[in-house]
Amino acid sequence: MSRPQLVWLKRDLRMRDHAPLCAAAERGPILVAYVYEPDQLDAPTHDASHLNFIRESLAELERQLVARGARLTLLRGLLPDAFERLHARVGFEAIWSHEETGHARSYARDERVKTWCRGRGIAWHEIPQHGVVRRLGSRDGWAARWTRTMRRPLLPEPERLEDALGAPDVEHVGLLGPADLGLTPSGRTEVQRGGETQAQETLDSFLAGRSVSYRTDMSSPLSAWNGCSRLSPHLAYGTISIREVAQRSAARREELKEMRARGEDLPATWLSSLASFEKRLRWHCHFIQKLEDEPALEFRNMARACDGLREDEWSEERFEAWKQGRTGYPMVDACMRALEATGWINFRMRAMLVSFASYHLWLHWPRVAEHLARLFLDFEAGIHFSQVQMQSGTTGINAVRIYSPVKQVIDQDPRGEFIRRWVPELAPVPVAYLPEPYKMPLDEAARLGCRIGRDYPRPIVENTKAMREARERLSALRRGGEARQESRAVYEKHGSRRRPPPRRRARS
Hints:
The chain is mainly α.
């Protein structure tokens, strides 16, 4: 008689294309478990909005499992202690889960579970979920390997599952929310909902029409709200697999090509937009691979030549102004307030927020990264820490991009619609003064009821001066022999192989 198999859910809250679930179901009766872990829930990157998304996703998954003859067991406690209690009641033979590239706490948790499994003689099968490669020897050939992974057939949902939970006394704490777990409730008003159905509907609407102008829509915080896929939280918590997204996007692109060949009138931007979207799916795994290969990137600079660059010049006053959306730069403040309310902002504006914190305010990136992680509903450790380091100039291999918050208003919100929504105190300010409200004449400011320094803060730093000084400091660092030599080593370990490194291109 086959013994029970435990399916351990982490960031893979779905039925479709779920390799551990399918593999366990082939071998015998299953237990499907999710664990509320105190050490993960009180991580500095965690927020109650993340838990709400998880709860919604688990609620749908529970209904799906029951419809197929199984159940969802919800546990609470540290691991492996929670598994020890479950194993004492239902002696499962093996654990099946997806590989996870997470923050240091999840890595330490996995190491504890691995040790416990060895001691109990329990096999733990970890199956890749993305295009990330564990114990990767070299980045050479990584992109081709990713493509092969994305083209593998999708796994169907199991039609019938054999339930291993016969004992009525098996621990089950039910669906828990922030209040149940001692977390401060989320006050977000426009946050995306969790669940596999939401993920599928979001992908459907993107491929059906929202993707038409993706390449151009994704830059502005106005058009990106609808023009971006909005799949990032679903990919982060695994309510849809990246392989399904990649395959369905590629199939839609082929369908559009056939429609065009038949003479149907299609927007000229659609095919290139989907191709651009698919490229970003590869970037998703490219950045996670960096943390997989070097977990210390969560805490220290990728380029160690950058150590000491900002650490000793921390300003709590500047950090608080940035967090609260009170910097005196309308685009920065609007984006931060929008993030606080919704948990999402488009990539260019994320880059601008990190750029402003790093270059204008000269803040060291780790606390900046932690705060943004709590705000981002789609927080994915591998992408997050690699991206924050890239935008703060501490990777040693990426171009330094310093975003002017003034120029971003002119380029991305020329009519001031986004700013007026999220910074209502600037609603009466004419468009001409929105990039730099402090330049508005005093008599006009008084007439409009928006005095700079009273109703809206003056700029915390001077834009042009701050950008110039940051460039000078970064340039001086990068000209040093140590930094140049280290950049080659960083590229060999983490660089994309789809194009040569910057200095090699420059010589050629």
